[in-house]
Amino acid sequence: MLQLDALSKTYKTGDAALKNVSLRVPKGQIVGLIGPSGAGKSTLIRCINRLVEPSSGKVLLGDVDLAALGARQLRQQRRRIGMIFQEYALVERLTVMENVLSGRLGYVPFWRSWLRRFPPDDIRNAFRLLDRVGLLEHADKRADALSGGQRQRVGIARALAQEPELLLVDEPTASLDPKTSRQIMRLLTEICEERGLPAIVNIHDVPLAQQFMQRIVGLRAGQVVFDGPPEQLTENVLTTIYGAEDWNAMRRGDEEQAEAEADAARRLEAIAR
Ligand SMILES: Nc1ncnc2c1ncn2[C@@H]1O[C@H](COP(=O)(O)OP(=O)(O)OP(=O)(O)O)[C@@H](O)[C@H]1O
């Protein structure tokens, strides 16, 4: 379980990006983090694994306060957290399999990773994960030969290879088209359910969050202003989170997307006839 206690972050520039955020994420729960640009979503995700140093507060993963650890202990504890990025963060010239195995780097001795001699169990597990994300037949392809959706599948398999206790997911679908975005969100949520793995997903796209998340946390100016199930995300609540202007702009965007999808479906139908 993850518990944030009065977590705050003020950057050197004086920007108070997080103000006293407290949050509990139990085992198996997948939480969508929404909010306007600059609300503090990335800062929150990055404070958890200390890619950004919190200014104050606690980050408890189980009974370990990650915010209080020295560098060496932090390195060890970070293995417990899998991270999935918007831009995939793959090593482009390595194969899919090698990228997945790189999730094991925190566990194998340096010489083994340098010689790329991973233990057989790790390799077997990596094949299983590639099968789970639907990329088994691509194991030997270079990462730069894959589509965006396939790359994100590699990113997911790599994070899972780490055998994490928590997943932090930073805008996983921001570089993907709407259909691929839904496929990736479906895969992520199914995998979290299968493994009882808690996750925090920073997600720009509100309809996508409503469709896939069990719980939604709305941030505004560094504070939690909504915390509840997607059904409670009414227009009023969205206006509280985004302000009227932002939310209306986003809704227009959503209509445009829906129109584009309907248009594409009509054209496909016409071709099929
Ligand atoms: N490295 C930094 N140095 C100084 N200020 C920062 C830094 N990173 C973020 N901020 C500030 O902290 C606040 C929160 O930023 P953050 O990137 O966490 O928001 P966000 O909700 O993830 O936004 P977006 O949706 O645009 O990615 C903003 O005011 C931003 O300008």
From TrEMBL:
Coiled coil segments of this chain: none
Gene name per UniProt: phnC
Name listed for the protein in its UniProt record: Phosphonate ABC transporter ATP-binding protein
Molecular function GO labels: ABC-type phosphonate transporter activity; ATP binding; ATP hydrolysis activity
Domain of life, source organism: Bacteria
InterPro entries for the chain: AAA+_ATPase, ABC_transporter-like_ATP-bd, ABC_transporter-like_CS, ABC_transpr_PhnC, MetN_ABC_transporter-like, P-loop_NTPase
GO cellular component: membrane
Keyword ATP-binding among record annotations: yes
Alphabetically ordered keywords of this record: ATP-binding, Cell membrane, Membrane, Nucleotide-binding, Translocase, Transport
Domain ABC transporter residue range list: 2-246
One Pfam match: ABC_tran
